[in-house]
Every structure is written in structure tokens, then in C-alpha cells.
Amino acid sequence: MALTCSLLLSSCASYSVTEQDMQQYLDKKVGFERTVGIKGIAYANVKFDDIKVGIGRVANDRVNLDAKSQAKVTIMGQKPQSVDLNVSFSAVPYYDKEEGAIFLNDLNVENIDIQPNELNVPTKQILSPVIEMVGQFLLTRPVYRLDDEDFKQSMLKNAKPELLIKNHSLVIQM
């Protein structure tokens, strides 16, 4: 009996979360629409629902996320403007045993692309809170949650696993 349990535990000592796994998880979970600023003076209605994942592509120990947002920027006395905001982030993944999920920490903005390039608004004052909002969303939500229905994942969830990045995958291992 002890040998059987030992074999079972050693055979499920790791689980890999691929870029595709994380992408599918985030496609189901990511999305919000919020307003930042002061209505009637200067504000932006932001819709965020598209993210692309890379694991270990920007740096060996980081996950990169390309987030696409659309904002409708309104400033008193001006015609509303639509803005596409593409922000590339990188972050360090970590496993939270309490949640049984992978979260991100140490978020860095790697690149920002704003279209149209020329806006009739003070770009930094309006778009900085938008970038911060998307960043906070990414830091406070899991990017992948282990599945209790999957035997291997549920065994790891209850252990104290280590999280590593190998071959563009997150490897959770005991």
C-alpha cells in the first residue's frame, strides 16, 4: 500500500501549464469595462478583453502579457475620441497554495502603443490611470487555477509545490 501511494505521488510530481493552457484560462476570465477620471471634466471609459500570453520569452523568469484595451476619452469641451491602447507587461509568476492558483508579481510595463498616435488630449494624465487599472487587474486575478477535478492537479494543489519556467511553460512540481 505504501509503495502504491509513493508511486502515485512520484508519478504526479509535476504539472506543466503551457502558454496555450494559460491563454485559454485567461480568455475565459479576462475582461472588464470601467470608467476612470471625473465625468463631465475628463474621463475615459475603458474596455479590456484581449490578452496574449508568453512564458519565458521576454526573460527566463518572467511571463509576458500583451493587453489590448479600447478607451473612449472625453474631455470637457472636446469631441470624444476613441483610443486603442496596447500595453506589453512582464511579471514574475508565483504559486499561491491557499488559492491553488498562479498569480503575477513584480509587474513591469515593457511597451506602450497608442493609436491614433496624435491625440487632442493630455495623453499621460488620461491614459496612465488606464494602464494602472489594467496592471492592477492582472496582479489581483489568477492567471491560472489548478483544477480540482484533475487528479494530478489536485494532488499538487495540496502540496507545497515549486514553480519554475521551463521551455515556455510554467512547471509546478513537488
TrEMBL record:
UniProt name for this protein: Lipoprotein
Domain of life where this protein originates: Bacteria
InterPro entries: DUF1439 (IPR010835)
A Pfam family assignment: DUF1439
